[in-house]
């Protein structure tokens, strides 16, 4: 199964960290494959990394596709609520906009089609409608021409959730090219974020495989490969480790202090996140009066462009050291801020040289548990909470948190008066979530987090082999049918 041309498709930038900055490309080339990045982003893999790429310059999806994609999502969530008798699913929906006549008309149209199609047959109609809309675009023809010119044997899509990928994958399928989608994140399946339909799917774990089969009955078990995710592979790469002295010097830290990482969230997930940083600063200040020598590393959410933390950081600048993720803004939108390879080293060493992480419901629990470090999840309301601001408690009710093997898989702080004591107990090795956190990590991300890239390549080769056999069988079947008709 050598000398195959594989298009690694980036409909957006979320897959860069997994499939451009890890060993993924090198492993594919070692197996004898030609790796070409089919790049729909503003990030140039050729200029930045020297990789062979085919740029998609036409980014225009059908203007109705975002509306129908929202309709699809709402219908799927409605069906899940009804099927599983679970009121968690409506909480995945974003509120409709009634700001201005245009938004009012779009909202009314969207709600009408949701109401008319809230059934299994309805969701099929909507998916077909989305595909029809995208096949009608110039982008579809553009991508089809690129595929005809370069003739890849397989298109590997690095995320299943981007509307920008629909026309490109349809073009591949219409040309008989095998398509594979990687399910990008641990919470995506229950949230109705499967935008594309491909020949095969790569998922993190047996749990995610079961979810795909549960929520998408049109997907057969034979189409799913459990591979793990390259997301956590860098945490097992010892070559990324800096000594404590070098790390502290590089980022202006005091090597005599023990540091706690505050990992920031996006504004949607945790709109009052800055006040949790303030609470941690108060706890640390109190502990320092008791003989501890602590500081805080604040690592913001890479796509958070707000200034909401600034006042808290300024007041606590003697305690809080800001170490921003090394991401590169290519444009002005949140989805035009791209990760860099250098950030993998930074994150590795932040995990390595801090005592614990605190956060609101992020998968950073797994980044830190990979380094045998504890995680505190904030789970209490802030007094600034008022009507129209999202309560973070909703996050922990989501389906993906039901994968926890026990309540001890993370340390929940349910009242800010508990925070100081929880931090103290972790520092004094009287409290930890590491044992059960590792079990949770295995449930979510699979049993071999260091082998994900290798396993994905095995899956890709299986897909190529299966598709080759399928084409041979189709050819035999057509010949048989022709012979029968002659008879």
Enter the CATH topology name of the largest domain: Rossmann fold
Number of helices: 17
The computed structural class is alpha/beta
Question: Any idea what the CATH architecture of the largest domain is?
Answer: 3-Layer(aba) Sandwich
Q: Which geometry do the CA atoms define?
A: globular
Helix fraction by DSSP (H/I, runs of at least 4):
40-55%
Strand share of the residues? 5-15%
User: What is the CATH class designation of the largest domain?
Assistant: Alpha Beta
How many β strands by DSSP?
Answer: 15
- What is the first-to-last residue Cα distance? 38 Å
Main-sheet strand order equals: 3-2-1-4-5-6-7
Description of the molecule:
- The protein is of the alpha/beta class.
- It has 3 domains: 5-61 and 137-228 and 448-482, Glycogen Phosphorylase B (Rossmann fold, 3-Layer(aba) Sandwich), CATH 3.40.50.2000; 65-131, no CATH class; 242-445, Rossmann fold, CATH 3.40.50.
- It has helices spanning 16-19, 24-30, 45-49, 65-84, 101-116, 120-135, 138-150, 166-174, 206-215, 244-251, 273-288, 310-315, 341-352, 364-369, 416-427, 434-445, 452-486; strands at 5-10, 34-39, 53-55, 154-157, 178-182, 200-203, 224-226, 258-263, 294-299, 320-322, 327-329, 337-339, 356-359, 374-378, 411-413.
- A 7-stranded parallel β-sheet has the order 3-2-1-4-5-6-7. Strands 10-9-8-13-14-15 form a 6-stranded parallel β-sheet. Strands 11-12 form a two-stranded antiparallel ribbon.
- It starts with a strand and ends with a helix.
- The model is unreliable at 475-487 (pLDDT under 50).
- Residues 468-487 are annotated as: Disordered.
- This is UDP-N-acetylglucosamine:LPS N-acetylglucosamine transferase.
- It comes from Flavobacterium degerlachei.
